[in-house]
Amino acid sequence: YGARLLGIILTGASEDGAAGLDAIRRAGGCTVVQQPETAQAATMTEAALKRGPADFVLPLDRIAELLRTLGHGAAGTVS
What we know:
The chain is α/β, with parallel strands linked by helices. It has three helices and three strands.
């Protein structure tokens, strides 16, 4: 799916999603990580960011806003 793929990492107490998000990043997809300081359990979000930068690092409510924006074809307008 390349650039049409979107991966999102939210709160979690393990690191299992980090490798998947890294694969999406390497394939050219869009990556989103919940801000670790806003996550109920930051292990997953911190592990994802250690593997490389995300396109967006946002609190949960801003991720919802981003998804609405992406749904309207205006990627990149939320920071």
